[in-house]
Write a structure and sequence with these properties.
Strand order of the largest sheet: 4-5-6-7-8-9-10-12
Largest sheet: 8 strands, parallel, barrel
Number of helices: 13
Mean pLDDT: 93
Distance between the termini: 66 Å
CATH architecture of the largest domain: Alpha-Beta Barrel
Radius of gyration: 30 Å
Number of domains: 4
Structural class: alpha+beta
Length: 828
């Protein structure tokens, strides 16, 4: 009887899957879902760069912003940090992430790779791969392909077990194997081509029931769809004419590295790139990133990628709407999706007017839709289209869903700009800081206490002859690695004298040097050249001298051909140089190696019993290197995002309640070269529109509310490597304090305050031809006198209000102009 019941249950389950399965195919126009061509507007959100508690809100906002798909990489080294030791918990719960996407009614695009780049540590590869014999990454290499096969199969099997591919009723409509390999394939010769063919055959063998893609792979095998990545992909064409035109990475901004300025990509230019892509036959576009998030812990790669991965994305690092970018794109998405049928089925007619001006007409079943594209970065252009004149601003695309009425232009932003302010939370002490009471204790620096050859097997210390790459020794379990050796000098030794020079040739990011227990100097990279020579003088003593070198990584290389071969750490030579030009090479000495600090491990604090027993001191010092600081703070009220203001500190790592917030380095200031304005016209590059010159590259560090205690105090611990002043540290919240807008006549403007706030006041409002910019606006001779009163009545006390921008709403302006607009400033 029980056997019959189980059989019936299996039959029912099979029937359920069959009836809920989605068939995903494609032709040369679009991805097809159950036989229907679909317009896909997607956005990248990476599960480890946010928290499980943030996911539902992020997906909800993405859907409200007009997206119908979410794209993510799969991060191999996060899931298998040590050989065959897997983790899929917390914000690494990939299954929960995909199910949350499905719960919001969105599709998912799973980029398994497993190489990801993504400014992620080591490009997503586990460092333990280096320790395998005869391995070479990303080429026809049996050892590498076997490990790649094991992990990729594990991910696919996990998705299948949970029925997450569309073919099983799940949201995953596409998957990716490898990533941007075409950019580096030439360096691998014939083995590279063999490898990419193997990737395709292996992917097909997994039988996932949805299409596979390869980005930046112009010669992708027939079974793969090759896709485009970049700032602009309107001129891209798939090499297989039976494949649709897909854009897997439209870079919404750019990442930031230590010492760098804040890069911005304007809403006008980003919308222009999207408009051009769909004008010229694109049917799937993905923003990289739609929410960038935070590089918690040690996941930032580079080297020197910051903890913030905001990326100037439509949803900012904390999950707030980045206005006006979010709203301007939302409006674009609405119009594009309204034309889905005609864009995916219509006949296409293109016309070139010269001077970088073009029109595209889509015709289907008696309906038409038009795009007018002006790629001239200097001139507005007027065209005569079917007896009617249309003026298209420079570097913009106009959309006419019926080829008669323009409903959207990428250069005209009719969305509010939200002013996000870092504020002292309610209950904080008035003044500059948060009234934090600090305790401190020092980090015990490792030093040899007897010559290497007599040191024995000390706990946690490895002994070897010669210098070893830091990646190999640490297995990426820590940023910190001690290199320790000893050298005996007597009065007759040729390099002994009054003063000698310690010379260290280093493939380091940061180096601290100690001789006989005393620090003689430190050096770190400031110009991007991660190979330098450290030299400091010291007076040796007669007898045994002990040398300790602490090498520190700040993220491992994540991009480029053979990037895994990039050396790390102290690889020598290491020499003592005497004034008489005599030198003693210590490179082939016996060396002792110690991984990590005594005060922490990668899961939190207190791993070392001796450290845990040591007392904390209350009269904390300033500007003391290698020091631990600890304090407690209350959870700020409300639901605004919480940030640490680490102004005044040097370099180190922060933990809140044992959660690693990431590396901090506010003492590293950005360079010069910022401009007061940014022209959206013309091709975008990462250095085109930058801000934050001469200030800390990153001052604010996200503390997700799920890391905080609701009913008791929170513990903040800092490891300060360079020395700083913790009395300047504070806890703040990110608040939408104001909003302003310039909306053109004929549009509908929505004003709102994010979170639970309401519009408390309308500071300025003018419909007509107002003058000035935010906080310095003025009315002109062309002004509807009722504007302010209308806005106050409609918006004050409301969470949001929608305004029809027209003379019908505000009355006559006393003049006639095609450029009339509403300028408004409100307080939240």
């Amino acid at each position: 009887m029980m056997g019959s019941f189980r059989l019936l249950l299996l039959i029912f389950f099979a029937f359920y899957l069959a009836t809920n399965a989605t068939k995903v195919t494609y032709d040369n126009r679009a991805i097809q879902i159950d036989g229907e061509r679909k317009l896909i507007i997607s956005g990248s959100i990476h599960y480890p760069r946010s928290t499980t508690e943030m996911w539902p809100s992020l997906f909800k906002k993405a859907k409200e912003g007009g997206l119908n798909a979410i794209e993510t990489y799969v991060f191999w080294n996060a899931h298998e940090p040590l050989y065959r030791q897997y983790t899929f918990e917390g914000n690494l719960d990939l299954v929960k992430f995909i199910k949350a996407i499905q719960a919001e009614g969105l599709y998912a695009i799973l980029r398994i790779g497993p190489y990801v780049c993504a400014e992620w540590n080591y490009g997503g590869f586990p460092v333990w791969l280096n320790n395998m014999q005869n391995i070479t990454f990303r080429t026809q290499n049996d050892a590498f392909m076997n490990e790649m096969k094991i992990f990729t199969t594990k991910i696919v099997d996990m998705m299948k077990k949970n029925n997450l591919f569309a073919s099983e009723g799940g949201p995953i409509i596409m998957a990716q194997i490898e990533n941007e390999y075409g950019n580096v394939m030439g360096s691998y010769g014939d083995q590279g081509k063999s490898y990419i063919n193997w990737c395709a055959n292996f992917a097909e063998s997994l039988d996932i029931g949805v299409p596979w893609i390869m980005c930046q792979q112009d010669d992708a095998p027939k079974s793969m769809i090759n896709t485009c990545n970049g700032y602009y992909c309107d001129q891209f064409s798939p090499h297989d004419k039976s494949s649709p035109k897909l854009w897997t990475e439209n870079w919404s901004g750019w990442y930031k590295d230590w010492g760098g300025k804040d890069p911005h990509r304007t809403p006008e230019d980003l919308a222009f790139s999207v408009g051009r892509f769909y004008q010229y036959g694109g049917t799937l576009q993905n923003y990289y990133m739609y929410h960038g998030g935070t590089n918690f812990g040690r996941v930032a790669g580079g080297p020197y990628i910051t903890t913030s991965y905001d990326y100037d994305a439509p949803l900012d690092e904390y999950g707030n709407l980045n206005q006006p970018k979010y709203g301007h794109l939302k409006e674009l998405h609405t119009h594009l999706m309204s034309m889905e049928k005609i864009l995916t089925h219509g006949d296409v007619t293109n016309k070139d007017y010269g001077n970088w001006m073009s029109s595209t007409i889509y015709s289907y079943n008696g309906s038409r839709a038009c795009f007018f594209g002006n790629a001239n970065d200097k001139q507005d252009i007027t065209i005569d289209f079917e007896g009617k004149k249309f003026t298209v601003p420079s570097w913009s695309v106009s959309i006419l869903p019926d080829c008669v009425t323009e409903v959207y232009n990428t250069a005209r932003v009719n969305t509010q700009t939200s002013v996000m302010e870092k504020r002292m939370p309610e209950g904080a002490v008035r003044g500059l800081h948060y009234n934090l009471n600090w305790a401190w204790r020092t980090e015990r620096i490792e030093h040899l206490r007897c010559p290497v050859q007599y040191s024995g097997n000390l706990k946690g210390v490895t002994y070897a002859k010669g210098l070893i790459d830091q990646k190999v020794m640490t297995n990426d379990t820590s940023d910190y690695l001690y290199y320790m050796t000893s050298v005996y000098l007597n009065g007759n030794d040729p390099v002994w004298g009054e003063e000698v020079t310690l010379q260290v040739n280093c493939h380091c990011h940061v180096l601290h040097a100690f001789v006989n227990g005393r620090r003689i100097g430190s050096k770190w990279v400031k110009n991007g050249d991660f190979k330098f020579v450290f030299e400091r003088n010291f007076v040796p003593r007669v007898g045994m001298n002990y040398i300790t070198l602490l090498s520190v990584t700040v993220g491992l290389q994540n991009y480029g051909a053979n990037f895994e071969k990039t050396p790390n750490g102290i690889l020598g030579p290491v020499k003592l140089l005497a004034p008489s030009s005599i030198e003693k090479d210590l490179s082939n000495n016996g060396w002792a190696y110690k991984v990590g600090l005594n005060g922490m491990d990668e899961r939190g604090l207190g791993s070392d019993p001796e450290f845990s027993r040591r007392r904390w001191y209350m009269n904390w010092p300033k500007n003391r290197i290698f020091t631990w600081y600890k304090t407690e703070f209350a959870t700020p009220k409300g639901d605004d995002a919480v940030v640490l203001d680490l102004w005044g500190l040097g370099k180190g790592t922060a933990w809140v309640n044992g959660n690693n917030i990431g590396r901090y380095w506010p003492s590293f200031l950005s360079g010069d070269g910022c401009s007061s304005s940014c022209n959206y016209r013309g091709g975008y590059g990462a250095s085109k529109c930058e801000s934050n010159c001469g200030k800390p590259t990153q001052r604010w560090y996200h503390v997700p509310r799920s890391f905080l205690n609701k009913d008791c105090l929170n513990t903040l611990v800092l490891f300060e490597e360079f020395g700083g002043n913790p009395c300047l540290v504070s806890i703040k919240t990110v608040t939408n304090s104001k909003a302003h807008a310039n909306a053109y006549e004929g549009s509908s403007l929505e004003l709102s305050c994010q979170g639970k706030r309401v519009i408390s006041n309308v500071n300025f409002a003018s419909f007509g031809l107002p003058n000035g910019t935010f906080e310095s606006l003025e009315t002109s001779h062309c002004h509807a006198s009722n504007t302010l009163s209308v806005l106050k009545e409609a918006c004050t006390g409301q969470k949001s209000c929608s305004i029809d921008v027209s003379e019908k709403t505000f009355g006559s302006t006393g003049c006639k102009s095609s450029m009339q607009r509403l300028a408004v400033e409100v307080e939240c």
